[in-house]
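name: query_chain
kind: protein
chains: 1
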Amino acid sequence: MRGGQARVLACMVLCHALLMATGIRAQALPVEVTAALRAAGIPPGAVAVEVRALDAADPAPLKVRHNAAAALNPASVMKLVTAYAALDLLGPAAVWMTEVRADVLPDASGRLHGNLYLKGGGDPKLTQDAFQALLRQLRALGVTRIEGDLVLDRSFFQLAEQDPGAFDGRPQRAYNVGADALLLDFRALRFTLMPEADGVRVRQDSPSAGVLADFRLSLAQGSCDGWRDRLGLRIVPGAAGEPDRLEARGGYPRSCGEKTLTLAPLSAERHAEGLFRALWAELGGSFTGRARSGTMPEQAIPLVWQASPPLAEIVRDMNKWSNNVMARQLFLTLDEHQPKTEAGARQRLTRWLADKGFHFPEFWVENGAGLSRTARISATHLVQLLTDAWQSPLMPEFAAALPLAGVDGTMKSRLRETLAQGRARVKSGTLSGVKSLAGYAQDGSGHWYALAFLINHPNAAAGGAAMDHLLLWVVQGCPQDAVR
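structure:
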């Protein structure tokens, strides 16, 4: 048994002993939740659930506690911890800065004879539009031709070499993009796939001079489920000065209709250069150098800068759409030192929990996004964190960032036209063998509840119905006659 696994097991034993010692006994799950778990082939021991009323006047606030001390993988629900810590430590108005400097000022004709430096400050949302706005500022200064290199300074973060395929063997999937102090447009390329009478038309929606899209897809019949997994993807590096070629082969089901495919096929340098060249040309500029990583010298001359949206908006985008790379960026920003590291961020987050009086012995965070096989937290401690956030002055920003059941974000298609639509603000999470849900729900009388539901089991993917039943039970006011 590895050291980390041994620590998790010890924490689980300790938490169970504490619960028994204090006389707290597990409240039963609602009948329909139990039935849905049984139908999915998920045993009770693989599930952790806690539901607590947030009304201080409630004489029995604990509504459900089932296996809630178990240390389980929370998947993307870990983003709730990252979001609350960031709001509390950095403040909802915090921003990230991206800076442009040069070796020399442009001459009278607009030529920049030295290098142009692009220094990243960890902005989690330096989108195509934001980057174009930054370059537009540069053009407004009169710069027309850049004759040096574009030097990419990402020294704000200090990260180990990242293998985008290490997690699940899908290196070109956008959710596997690692953190980057200079994260340009999430290092992603977006394509729209459209079935037509004689084949599949593909439109590239992301400007890039760094890749040549070579899609040869045939129309297929059958269900649209898992259509992305049926595409064979390969990146063929281009020769010096030539773009890489992204090859896509396979069948695309006609039943899918129009779909968006988001990929991250390029290295950070190739992606940055491709995006820069395309946008700079659109603005009427020219560039004769190349993009390369480096460090901006202190004596470089400041030209323009760009601030990110405020943290409150970043947290909303991150949690509404479960954006992993944004969460990684936000997590790293927690480090008080520079360059910022995952170890430093983890230490500060752990210290923050202790400073707030939380004792979470089983807690382990890897990257703040939940895209991890080692991350752990219990349902009880998730609910404790949610309760604290509810009582905090930051509650409006924190709660508003959660997907609204049946309305928006990752919960838009769940629980539509049910009692839970618009009444549950919850973050969901999914990994192979993991399914999770945590957040808040309001019943018909206006009372609010905090809840957490974690499943770690090979059949976890089939656990969505059980989670939906729990939400429906909560919005009905947690009727105890529906529990056994």
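note: The first strand starts at residue 47 and ends at 53.
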